[in-house]
Write a sequence for this structure.
């Protein structure tokens, strides 16, 4: 008979308490972007993605960002998640000026505050689902037993506790993305950044994965920003923004 270790119980208790703790935090914007500019030097000259782009996101919001390919949606998520730096402007994310972080500070910030889900799952093929979910905790220095116990709790959250010993190649596309979601949230981040999280899935599986994202967002007090080409899914978010000509504008509602 399996018993819950004190460390696992502590992690589970912290996970359950997280929405309550976040509700008591200051309600100032969790993301504040002002006059953001991002340019690249190319063989054909300077390419400017963002021109004085501004964005404010309140705690608990689920915000969709849509736009044409090449508009800079992924680059914007990378900047918010401290994976890239702006050319100018200020970017405060989770009370941190991410543009001023050193590479080491940025890595620690991502591990602590950001859960990232990509279009492709990027699971490590030689490790089991359980081990993949535990990776962010192990990277933080959590002992292996506690990390695996927390990972098991998150696999149960996404309905895959019976698949914990399977490697990514033994899972369906939808199951792989659910494991990726569990991995993104195992550190109980404040922010979930999702870059086309359903883009590689068929319509039915995509709907189920989005249902799961909505539930996890609500149950764990997350603030979520999702890039998507699916306008139906975007319409289910708190609000939807279109990235066009280097700026964000509210997406007009469809009749």
């Amino acid at each position: 008979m399996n018993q819950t270790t004190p460390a696992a119980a502590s992690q589970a208790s912290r996970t359950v308490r997280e929405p309550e703790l976040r509700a008591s935090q200051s309600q100032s914007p969790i993301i504040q972007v002002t006059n953001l500019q991002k340019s690249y030097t190319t063989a054909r000259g300077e390419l400017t993605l963002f021109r004085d782009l501004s964005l404010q996101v309140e705690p608990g919001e689920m915000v969709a960002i849509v736009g044409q390919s090449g508009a800079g949606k992924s680059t914007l998520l990378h900047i918010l998640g401290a994976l890239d730096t702006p050319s100018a402007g200020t970017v405060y994310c989770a009370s941190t000026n991410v543009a001023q972080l050193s590479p080491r500070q940025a890595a620690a910030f991502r591990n602590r505050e950001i859960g990232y889900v990509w279009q492709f799952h990027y699971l490590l093929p030689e490790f089991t689902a359980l081990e993949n979910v535990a990776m962010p905790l192990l990277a933080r220095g959590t002992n292996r037993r506690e990390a695996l116990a927390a990972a098991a709790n998150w696999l149960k959250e996404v309905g895959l506790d019976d698949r914990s010993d399977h490697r990514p190649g033994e899972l369906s596309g939808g199951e792989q993305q659910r494991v990726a979601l569990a991995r993104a949230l195992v550190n109980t981040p404040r922010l979930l950044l999702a870059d086309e999280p359903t883009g590689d899935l068929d319509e039915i599986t995509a709907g189920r994965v989005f249902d799961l994202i909505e539930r996890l967002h609500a149950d764990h007090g997350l603030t979520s920003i999702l890039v998507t080409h699916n306008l139906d899914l975007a319409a289910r978010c708190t609000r939807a923004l279109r990235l066009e000509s280097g700026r964000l504008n509210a997406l007009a509602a469809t009749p």
